[in-house]
Amino acid sequence: MTTKLETLPTPETAGAGKPTNRRKPKVRESRGTLAFSKAQRSKALMKHAILILAGGLMIYPLLWMVVSSLRPNELIFREPGLWLNSLEMSNYTSGWSALTHPFGHYMINSAIVVIGSILGNLISCSMAAYAFARLQFTAKKLLFGIMLLTIMLPFHVVIVPQYILFSQIGWVNTFWPLIVPKLLATEAFFVFLMVQFIRGIPRELDEAARIDGAGHPRIFLRVILPLMVPALATTTIFTFIWTWNDFFGALIYLTDPDMFTVPVALRAFVDSQSATSWGSLFAMSIVSLLPVFLVFLFGQRFLIKGIATTGIK
User: Fold this and answer.
1) In this predicted model, what pLDDT tens digit does every residue of 49-86 receive, in sequence order?
2) Residue 229 contacts by C-beta under 8 Å, 6 or more apart in sequence?
3) pTM for this structure?
């Protein structure tokens, strides 16, 4: 009588065909990988250290000006550090009323010029950009090239003929020479910025509006302009910063102290014949920087979006 011998399952065949929950052994990183990751970390730390150092060097003059505005006038240049032994708030009160008018009067003058320049650039540059991007007319490429060449033309080259023109009109010592050129699309940088943005808008939207009976004015106002918000916001922010900080143009055209803007009013604190009130000058400089800081802070996301969308195209 023969018996069948049952073979016992071996460890190799016991788990055949069945899922196992065994964890695979971890592969240890090689020394080369570890060395490479350490090199990457050290390189990243070095980059961050250099950026922090460069940022500290760039922001140090601003911090020193803030600290100096809180020091007595005789200690500003004796203590060049950032440590304050006492707060001197009288620089702000004396600087606000040191000139012929309160400093708020000059900020209002700057605000008038800034608002007029912003409206002028938004209206004229957007219309010129739509013409270059969507319309077909004679010598379009030639005129567009001439417009781009004006970006490389320094402002000091045209200031003499402009001054003669505005002097004959009788606009010297008024705000018109600082506002009217913005109504004529003289800022080629903003025109080019908007042209690049409009070229990225699909033409199918124009064709659909044209089928509905819309002409170019209605297409521009109802279709193109609402889609140009990032480019318009970028133009607004740059125009505000450049116009608010403009010193040369205001110095040339504004001679009456009642018409001074903020940069020219700050220049009045420096007197070559008598002692300069540095504490009041630094205090009013901080006050004049607050609008620029707030505009940039709240408009930063529009600025980044506008530059990114126009730069990709």
Assistant:
1) 999 999 888 888 888 888 888 888 788 888 777 887 77
2) 302
3) 0.79
- Tokens in use for 152? 């490389």
What one-letter code names the amino acid at 250?
Answer: A
b or e along 35-55 (b: 16 or more beta carbons within 10 Å of the residue's beta carbon)?
eeeeeeeeeeeeeeeeeeeee
Q: Dump pLDDT digits (tens) for 114-151.
A: 999 999 999 999 999 999 999 988 999 999 999 989 88
Q: Where are the alpha helices (DSSP H) in the chain?
A: 11-14, 31-68, 90-96, 103-134, 140-149, 155-169, 176-179, 188-199, 203-211, 216-219, 225-227, 229-244, 248-253, 262-267, 278-298, 300-312
The Cα–Cα gap between 231 and 123 comes to 13
CA atoms within a 13 Å half-sphere pointing along the CA-CB vector of 288: 31
**What is the residue-wise DSSP string for 68-130?**
HTTS-GGGTTT--SS--SS--THHHHHHHTSSSS-HHHHHHHHHHHHHHHHHHHHHHHHHHHH
Packing angle of the helix pair 103-134, 140-149 (nearest 10 deg): 150
